[in-house]
């Protein structure tokens, strides 16, 4: 099993059946696996900001933790306004953002995603190694639900194709928070 497959398994284990996003080279294998192997509905957006805004609206209307995905560098940068709005609304949302290889600072899409994510979403969690990928996804969902607010889950493109150690591929069962009723503001 590869890291992108383990991430897909973990995302689905957290009750996710819909993902909003824009495809790029740093998230295409994850999205393809979510759709083909797990039957997740992928809602394509025209730009990254719209993808996060759709996920924000989905979370607010369903009471569920929403998931969006964008590619590296400019992909994450374009999502900044929507992440800031979701942060202000305390929307439980996980944005899975691809990233350039850490060892390639001259990559055309390279920029330091952590400070940008902290300034917009407020929470940044990297997938550190192939052996921690499943745990890191769980940490992102927990943070999004309990803080609450958006979390940028950062996944370097070169890490996504690495094999996951067998013991680390086990996805613990998730207990998603049941959706709360949608109640209109009396005003």
Automatic annotation (TrEMBL):
Domain called Thiamine pyrophosphate enzyme N-terminal TPP-binding: residue spans: 1-102
Compositionally biased intervals (Pro residues): 173-187
Stretches the record annotates as Disordered: 168-187
Protein's name according to its UniProt entry: Thiamine pyrophosphate-binding protein
Pfam families: TPP_enzyme_N
Family stated for the protein in its record: Belongs to the TPP enzyme family.
PANTHER family, A to Z: THIAMINE PYROPHOSPHATE ENZYMES
Provenance organism: Micromonospora fluostatini
CDD domains: TPP_PYR_POX_like
């Amino acid at each position: 099993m590869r890291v992108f497959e383990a991430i897909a398994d973990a995302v689905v284990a957290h009750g996710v059946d819909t993902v909003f996003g824009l495809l790029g080279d740093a998230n295409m294998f994850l999205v393809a696996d979510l759709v083909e192997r797990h039957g997740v509905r992928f809602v394509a957006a025209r730009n990254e900001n719209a993808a996060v805004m759709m996920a924000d609206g989905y979370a607010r209307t369903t009471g569920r933790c929403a998931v969006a995905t964008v590619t590296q560098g400019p992909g994450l940068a374009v999502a900044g306004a929507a992440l800031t709005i979701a942060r202000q609304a305390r929307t439980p949302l996980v944005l899975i953002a691809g990233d350039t290889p850490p060892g390639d600072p001259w990559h055309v899409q390279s920029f330091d995603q952590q400070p940008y994510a902290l300034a917009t979403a407020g929470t940044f969690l990297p997938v550190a190694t192939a052996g921690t990928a499943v745990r890191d996804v769980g940490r992102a969902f927990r943070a999004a639900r309990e803080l609450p607010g958006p979390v940028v889950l950062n996944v370097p493109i070169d890490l996504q194709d690495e094999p996951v150690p067998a013991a680390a591929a086990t996805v613990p069962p998730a207990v998603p928070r049941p959706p709360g009723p949608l109640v209109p503001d009396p005003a």
